[in-house]
Write a structure and sequence with these properties.
Number of strands of chain B: 16
CATH superfamily of chain A: Thiamin diphosphate (ThDP)-binding fold, Pyr/PP domains
Shape of chain B: globular
Number of strands of chain A: 8
Oligomer: heterodimer
Number of domains of chain A: 1
Largest sheet of chain A: 8 strands, mixed
Helix content of chain B: 25-40%
CATH topology of chain A: Rossmann fold
Strand content of chain B: 15-25%
Bound molecules: thiamine diphosphate, iron/sulfur cluster, magnesium ion
């Protein structure tokens, strides 16, 4: 019963591996995503974490929220640390110094840690073919240091280093497509997920963990603080992202694309943009530009699933 | 005892890493370290060494992989030089704070710029305060012996710190020397299996690398400093046991002709052998000159050093790195401040030489001695440091 086609919350473990009491902001859907991923993976895992919100909220010496083995070394090197954790364990098992327990090796980082400063080390780990799962918690900016833009910040979003000014409409570049970059490494499994869709997320993470070789899951993680929305709107906003086609949920298994949460008719992007303070300054023309791009990319993705 | 072989020092070091039965090697190529990694990858490819050879995409990742593999309790080795060390710098400082007993050979090479592949100590001196155990080797035999030594000291549960073995690039790494190999039985007696104090394992979850708020940071640093200082006892024991096993007794500070010496040279690394020749010649001329070689750099061997230079009137400190706009080379400025509180502090002259592979000959060291004598007699102004051998 590994598949969650029956959507029943009873099937999700009540055990918490990322324990309550952490210091994330109210309504933080990134912390929710971390918690769900931890539930999906269970006890038999070793986590390597990048510097960022999730590291800082969970590990103030001498406390920890981690009930599974967890290591943090620096910001940009999670994939390399995970490579060492995996490689070291593999060597010890082969040499008869440790029993083989089928442990899952997880690397985790924010969008900054993944799409910017840690992209090289992630690419290296993919290319070397380590048997590990990498989860990117994408809240679309460097939140831990105060909402600065990353290459994953969407076009038009105001951040503290892409402010909306008289000349510039916030972020002037389009969001880096990290899922496609992962696919281009020819790894066996790539997926997108969102903590507003917990069953879909858990199923993908479980599947990714079972696969031998590198796997990548990119989780849209709503950040009320950075997106300028009330904490109680976080889950709802994540659903708008999917229902408008801004953030489609799909998986790519051995090169084969499949949309996992189908949206027969996309809602207008304004439904997603309007409630968020970071898009408050957008003009109708800019919204049209975003709409045009979202529709085009969604259709491109659909076309890939038909292949 | 093992056999004596004529072998390139880099290859001998790699063979020693193999004999230590390392579990993970993660390294990125850079001259003059390359022969060590190349040979290790060959040993793995031929099945002579059962280890994960992780061909990382950068030195930053090399040191990061080492952190991960050491944290799961795997015996871990890496090596690099200059730019590679500079690129991994961030993680070099984190590894000892996390008490990860990684062994790294640093094939010493000048730091850019200008770009140079040749030997000096500007790379290692840039990480002087990184918290690793740091020592220097002078010849191939020392390099071979100290691979075993490094794993033993680093992994000792009372130490659990990374260790950096310095080996001068080219002048040591690339020369062929007769080296007495250990047999595997001796290695087994000397080097126990690695039993980590903590390891990342699902059966016993631990959190490694938590962040420190101001209320605890100072205490964490104090504990780290203490661990490095305390490692000296384990270091001394490891040298003693090695001597008993293979007949070579190493010390933190070595001396040569210091009996009755009024002037001593202080050197680190492979230049020591040339300095000894200069000492021989000066002695032959009736000059009371000796030599002190600093093998252990961190933790600094205070007592041994004090003992070695007792009664000395002048000290000529050879530095192989520059401290721009500072008070002298890194070694000299430390020695000066250490001896400042001693009674009868010797006069210390400081020569910065042998930068980026510039040859320093016996005659050069004799000239430094003469210059020191003149300075002492007040014939020339005493300077904080002299960059020696600058072409006019
Ligand atoms: C080498 C380095 N540069 C910069 C930083 C400062 N820094 C810490 S976390 C962070 C941003 C993290 O952003 P992201 O990865 O998106 O995670 P988030 O906090 O948003 O979850 C930055 C810039 C650092 N720790 N190390
Ligand atoms: S800033 Fe955002 S991502 Fe960070 S803890 Fe707060 S809500 Fe979560
Ligand atoms: Mg972020």
């Amino acid at each position: 019963m590994e598949r969650f086609n029956v959507y029943a919350s009873r099937l999700i473990t009540k055990k918490e591996y990322f324990s309550p009491g952490h210091r994330a902001c109210q309504g933080c859907a990134e912390a929710l995503a971390v918690r769900l991923v931890a539930k999906a993976l269970g006890q038999n895992v070793i986590v390597s974490s990048a510097t960022g919100c999730m590291e800082i909220v969970s590990s103030p010496l001498p406390f920890t929220n981690w009930r599974v083995p967890w290591i943090h070394v620096a910001f940009e090197n999670t994939s390399a640390v995970a490579s060492g954790v995996e490689g070291g364990t593999k060597a010890l098992i082969r040499k008869g110094k440790l029993p083989d327990k089928g442990t899952v090796f997880l690397g985790m980082g924010g969008d900054g840690a993944t799409t910017d400063i840690g992209l090289q080390s992630l690419s290296g780990a993919f290319e070397r073919g380590h048997n590990f799962l990498y989860v990117c918690y994408d809240n679309e900016a460097y939140m831990n240091t105060g909402i600065q833009r990353s290459s994953s910040t969407p076009f038009g979003a105001a951040t503290t280093t892409s402010p909306a000014g008289k000349l510039k409409p916030g972020q002037v570049t389009w969001k880096k497509n990290m899922g496609e970059i992962a696919v281009a490494h020819n790894i066996p499994y790539v997926a997108t997920a969102c903590s507003s869709y917990p069953f879909d997320l858990i199923e993908k993470v479980k599947k990714a963990a079972r696969i031998h070789g590198p796997a990548y899951v990119h989780v849209l993680s709503v950040c009320p603080t950075g997106w300028r929305i009330p904490p109680n709107k976080a889950i709802w906003i994540g659903r708008q992202a999917v229902e408008t086609g801004v953030f489609p949920l799909y998986e790519v298994e051995n090169g084969k694309y499949r949309i996992t949460v189908d949206v027969p008719e996309l809602k207008p992007v304004l439904d997603y943009l309007k409630p968020q303070g970071r898009f408050r300054h957008l003009t109708p023309e800019l919204v049209d530009q975003i709409q045009e791009r979202v529709t085009r990319e969604y259709n491109q993705l659909k076309a890939k699933t038909a292949l | 005892m093992g056999e004596r072989v004529g072998i390139e020092v880099s290859l001998a070091a790699a063979e020693a890493v193999k004999m230590a039965n390392v579990d993970v090697v993660a390294a990125y190529p850079i001259t003059p370290q390359t022969h060590i990694v190349e040979h290790l990858s060959e040993l793995v490819a031929d099945g002579e060494l059962d280890a994960e050879f992780i061909p990382v995409e950068s030195e930053h990742s090399a040191m990061s992989v080492c952190c991960g593999s050491s944290a799961v309790g795997a015996r871990t080795f890496t090596c690099t030089s200059s730019q590679g060390l500079a690129l991994m710098n961030e993680i070099v400082f984190i590894a000892p704070a996390m008490r990860l007993p990684i062994v790294m050979i640093l094939a010493n090479r000048s730091l850019s710029g200008p770009l140079s592949i040749w030997n000096d100590h500007t790379d290692v001196m840039s990480v002087r305060d990184c918290g690793w155990i740091q020592f220097f080797t002078e010849n191939g035999q020392e390099a071979f012996d100290h691979v075993m030594f490094s794993f033993r000291v680093a992994e000792n549960p009372a130490v659990s710190l990374p260790i950096m073995m310095n080996m001068d690039g080219f002048v040591l790494t690339h020369v062929i020397e007769p080296i007495e190999f250990w047999d595997q039985e001796t290695v087994k007696q000397y080097l126990p299996d690695f039993e980590p104090v903590n390891r990342l394992h699902p059966d016993n979850p631990v959190t490694m690398g938590a962040f420190g708020l101001p209320g605890i940071f100072t205490e964490a640093k104090m504990a780290q400093d203490q661990a490095l200082i305390n490692s000296k006892a384990v270091i001394l024991e490891a040298w003693k046991d090695m001597g008993d096993l293979v007949g070579r007794y190493y010390k933190p500070v070595e001396t040569y002709h210091v009996e009755g010496a009024e002037t001593v040279f202080l050197s680190m690394g492979s230049v020591g052998e040339t300095v000894s020749l200069a000492v021989d010649q000066l002695r032959a001329r009736g000059k009371p000159v000796g030599q002190v070689k600093l093998r252990l750099w961190r933790p600094f061997p205070f007592e041994e050093f004090r003992e070695a230079v007792r009664g000395v009137k002048q000290m000529i400190v050879i530095d192989r790195a520059i401290t721009y706009g500072g008070v002298g080379g890194p070694v000299a400025s430390e020695i000066r401040s250490f001896l400042y509180l001693e009674e009868n502090m010797p006069i210390i002259t400081n020569f910065l030489c042998g930068l980026a592979g510039r040859d320093v000959t016996v005659e050069d060291y004799m000239a430094m001695f003469e210059k020191t004598e003149q300075m002492v007699k007040g014939k020339v102004r005493q300077e904080d440091y002299i960059i020696y051998g600058v072409r006019e």
